[in-house]
Design goal:
Blueprint lengths: L8 E6 L5 H10 L1 H5 L3 E4 L10 H11 L2 E6 L1 H4 L2 H16 L4 E6 L29 H20 L10 E4 L3 E4 L2 E6 L2 E5 L12 E5 L2 E4 L5 H11 L4 H5 L1 E6 L2 E6 L26 H15 L3 E2 L3 H9 L45 E7 L16 E2 L10 E4 L16 E3 L8 E2 L3 E2 L3 H8 L19
Length: about 450
C-alpha cells in the first residue's frame, strides 16, 4: 500500500454517473497532485474503447492504493457502486491493502451503510453541496487527501510516530495538544431536577478515550488556519454573533481573529480559547489534527463530554455538587486564558465556564431519539440522532450563570452559527493504532491485556 516517493499513488474513483459534475469539480481540486505526479487517478470514463469495462474496473480496483467513494443517494442506490465497487474496496481496506475514503457529495443516509465506521470527508461529513462555498469544501477534501498521500509516501508532513507520554496511564501529548485518559465507566447521564430535555437520568456506558486537557486556543487554531489555508464560516459570510444585554446580535466582521468585530483582536490572547467558530469549523480543525498526526481526533460525543465532566458519581458540576464561583469563569465579561482556574474532574480545565463547547451529536429533545435506552438497561456509547437541525453544546460560558454550567446542561446550536462565547475541545480515540503506539512505549506502563477489547485493535 505504500509506494516509493517518486511513484504516483494509484487512486480509484467510484461514483454514480448522476454525480458526474461534482466528480469533475473534485478532479480540478486534485489537479496539482496529478500534475506533480503525486497521484494517478482512474475512473470508469477512462475505459478504453473496445475494452471489457467490468474487467478494467476490477483490475484498477484491485491495484489502487487509495479508493475514493463519492457518496450520494444515487451511489447508495446503484447496485454496481454499492454492492460491487464499495464492497470490494472495503474488503481491501479491512485487510490493509488499500485505504478507503468516503466523500459525501449530497445528503443521504450513508451512516446506515458499512461506511459509518470510516472517517468521511469533508471534515465533518457535511455534504459538499451544503457548504455555502462549494470550493471551500472541495479544497478541504483535497487538503486531507494530500496529507494522506504524504503519509503513504513518506512526505514532509508524515504523521507523528509516537505520542509523548506526560503521566503514565493518565496523559499524553500529540503534536501540541495534551489529552487525558478517561477510563471506561458507567455514569448517570442527564438530570431529573432541571430542564425537560435533560430528563430522565439514565445509566450510560462510555468506553475509554482521551479528552483534551484544555480548550483549543487561538494560537493552536491559528496554526491550523495558516497551514491548511482555511477560512471559517464567519470569515466567509462576514458576520459573527456577539452579545448585547446578553442577547445575541449579528456583528459585521466578527470572526475568530476579531471576536467582537473590526475593533477587536486576539493578538494578545494567544492562550485564550478560540471563539466565533461554528460546528463545521471545529470539526475541520479536529480533522486537520487527524491528518497531521495520523491518529483519530474528533469532537467528543455528548456522552463522552458529560462522563468526563461528571464522573461515575454524576457530579452536578465538574468540581463537585456544591457550586463554587471561584472554580470557573462564569457571569463575567469575556474569555480567560486556559489554566487560569483550577483543573476539574481528572485534570481537565474549563469544563465549566469560559466557553460553550461543540459536541459531535445532533441535538434532540428526547433521549430515545438519540438511541438511549430508558427502561433501566445500559446505553453503550451513544452518538445521538442520525440527523437534525442543531448540534449539542456543553459546559456553559463566561456569560452564563451556575445553572448553565452544570454537567448535565445541554444547549442546541445551529452548526453554521458561531458566537463570541462558543469554542471547542478535542477528543482522541483509543483505537488500534493509538493502542499500538502506547504499547510500544514502556513509559506508558501498559500491557497487551489492558485494552484487548478496544475496537480496531490489531
Amino acid at each position: 500500500m505504500t509506494g516509493a516517493v517518486d511513484e504516483p499513488i494509484e487512486v480509484f474513483l467510484s461514483y454514480s454517473h448522476a454525480d458526474e459534475g461534482l466528480k469533475t469539480e473534485l478532479l480540478k481540486h486534485l489537479g496539482s497532485l496529478r500534475l506533480d505526479s503525486r497521484i494517478k487517478v482512474w475512473h470508469d470514463r477512462l475505459v478504453e474503447p473496445g475494452s471489457r469495462w467490468a474487467s478494467d474496473i476490477d483490475t484498477h480496483l484491485r491495484t489502487a492504493s487509495l479508493v475514493l467513494l463519492l457518496i450520494s443517494a444515487d451511489f447508495l442506490n446503484s447496485e454496481y457502486c454499492y454492492s460491487i465497487e464499495m464492497k470490494h474496496a472495503l474488503q481491501r481496506h479491512n485487510n490493509g491493502s488499500a485505504i478507503v475514503v468516503p466523500i459525501i457529495l449530497r445528503s443521504c443516509d450513508w451512516q446506515a451503510s458499512p461506511l459509518e465506521k470510516l472517517q468521511a470527508l469533508p471534515a465533518d461529513g457535511r455534504p459538499v453541496v451544503d457548504w455555502p462555498v462549494r470550493d471551500q469544501a472541495l479544497a478541504g477534501v483535497a487538503q486531507a487527501i494530500r496529507a494522506r498521500i504524504e503519509q503513504m509516501t513518506g512526505g514532509a508532513n508524515q504523521a507523528v510516530c509516537l505520542p509523548e507520554v506526560l503521566i503514565p496511564r493518565r496523559s499524553l501529548r500529540i503534536a501540541e495538544l495534551q489529552f487525558l485518559l478517561i477510563p471506561q465507566g458507567v455514569f448517570p447521564m442527564g438530570s431529573d431536577g432541571h430542564y425537560a430535555h435533560e430528563r430522565p437520568m439514565h445509566p450510560v456506558l462510555v468506553s475509554a478515550f482521551f479528552l483534551g486537557t484544555t480548550l483549543v486556543t487561538n494560537r493552536q487554531f491559528a496554526k491550523f488556519v495558516d497551514q491548511a489555508g482555511y477560512l471559517t464560516g464567519a470569515e466567509i459570510t462576514g458576520f459573527g454573533t456577539c452579545l448585547a444585554d446578553e442577547r445575541p446580535v449579528a456583528m459585521k466582521n466578527a470572526n475568530w481573529r476579531h471576536p467582537w468585530g473590526s475593533g477587536s483582536s486576539v493578538v494578545d490572547k494567544n492562550d485564550h480559547p478560540v471563539v466565533q467558530i461554528n460546528w463545521h469549523d471545529a470539526s475541520a480543525y479536529a480533522q486537520w489534527v487527524s491528518s497531521v498526526t495520523g491518529f483519530h481526533v474528533s469532537l467528543p460525543t455528548e456522552a463522552q463530554w458529560e462522563y468526563a465532566a461528571a464522573g461515575s458519581e454524576g457530579r452536578i458540576w465538574p468540581f463537585g455538587d456544591k457550586y463554587d464561583a471561584t472554580k470557573a469563569n462564569l457571569e463575567g465579561t469575556g474569555t480567560s486564558p486556559i489554566g487560569m482556574y483550577d483543573a476539574h474532574a481528572r485534570g481537565a480545565y474549563d469544563l465549566a465556564g469560559n466557553v460553550y463547547e461543540w459536541c459531535q451529536d445532533w441535538f434532540t429533545d428526547g433521549w430515545r431519539d438519540g438511541g438511549h435506552l430508558l427502561d433501566g438497561s445500559l446505553t453503550a456509547d451513544p452518538t445521538g440522532p442520525c440527523n437534525g437541525t442543531d448540534r449539542v453544546l456543553k459546559g456553559g460560558s463566561w456569560l452564563d450563570a451556575a445553572e448553565h454550567s452544570r454537567c448535565a446542561n445541554r444547549m442546541a446550536g445551529r452548526p453554521d452559527i458561531c458566537s463570541v462565547n462558543w469554542g471547542m475541545r478535542c477528543c482522541l480515540h483509543l483505537d488500534g493504532r493509538l493502542m499500538d503506539a502506547l504499547l510500544s512505549n514502556s513509559d506508558w506502563e501498559m500491557t497487551s491485556t489492558d485494552y484487548d477489547a478496544v475496537p480496531g485493535r490489531r
